[in-house]
């Protein structure tokens, strides 16, 4: 349904042709192609300007995003190797969990191939923003379309840091409201996993968030001014090599990385506590890429 897309190439190791046939019956101008199996990866990536990687196994009750690491890390590594060979200039939107580690893996793969551009490797943390906006609107009785909550840090548990002090429109919080709301934003994925009772993890809300991020990237590619999203990217906002914060999107990807801005003492404390966790996640990704 996105008018900025000319061709949509779908790739997986199985069961792609049925999805491609199904989508191709939608009366939109987008050309749909399906590619099945590892030998067809290059065909799927040929000419791509934006590559979205949501691949991997989903979480089940009792699992953390880190439990997905080994399987999903291998999948992301193989797909990014294909990108390096076939469409090294494409922008990457990496959704596969744990994002805190899979984005560093992608960066290492592209570095090894000599084609790494930090502006073009984006971890998709949009779902955290979508959830924060939704929950704040519910809590305060606001129109959700008017709400914007920046979410920084990473994309797992306590590394997800909603800056509720920077909520737009400006709202006031009681001491009782803040901890419960922050905890819900951080654990919203688990809320869905448990509600599905073993039948999967967040897919529809994640698809919505992924589509929002993809649209923003495409708008940036098209040269539109003032396109901003939060994303997990190579960054010097903190001492960490990767960090999620608001970025300005343009023709070359994340063209400007915004700082954290003014935050409360409680938010600073949460950030300080998240940094060593994020560092461990990042190191795990780098070590995996270099060791495999």
TrEMBL record:
Record-listed substrate binding positions: 59, 65, 97, 131
The reaction(s) this protein catalyses: (S)-malate + NAD(+) = oxaloacetate + NADH + H(+)
Catalytic residues (UniProt): 155
Swiss-Prot/TrEMBL keywords: NAD, Oxidoreductase, Tricarboxylic acid cycle
EC number: 1.1.1.37
Superkingdom of the organism of origin: Eukaryota
Subunit structure: Homodimer.
Binding site for NAD(+): 12, 72, 95-97, 206
Family: Belongs to the LDH/MDH superfamily. MDH type 1 family.
GO BP: any one term: malate metabolic process
Residue intervals of the Lactate/malate dehydrogenase N-terminal domain: 2-123
Enzyme class per UniProt: oxidoreductase
One example GO MF annotation: L-malate dehydrogenase (NAD+) activity
Organism: Symbiochloris irregularis
Classification via Pfam families: Ldh_1_C, Ldh_1_N
Domain Lactate/malate dehydrogenase C-terminal: 125-288
The keyword Transcription is assigned to this record: no
GO CC entries: mitochondrion
Gene3D superfamilies, per database record: Lactate dehydrogenase/glycoside hydrolase, family 4, C-terminal, NAD(P)-binding Rossmann-like Domain
Name of the protein described by the UniProt record: Malate dehydrogenase
PANTHER family: MALATE AND LACTATE DEHYDROGENASE, MALATE DEHYDROGENASE, MITOCHONDRIAL
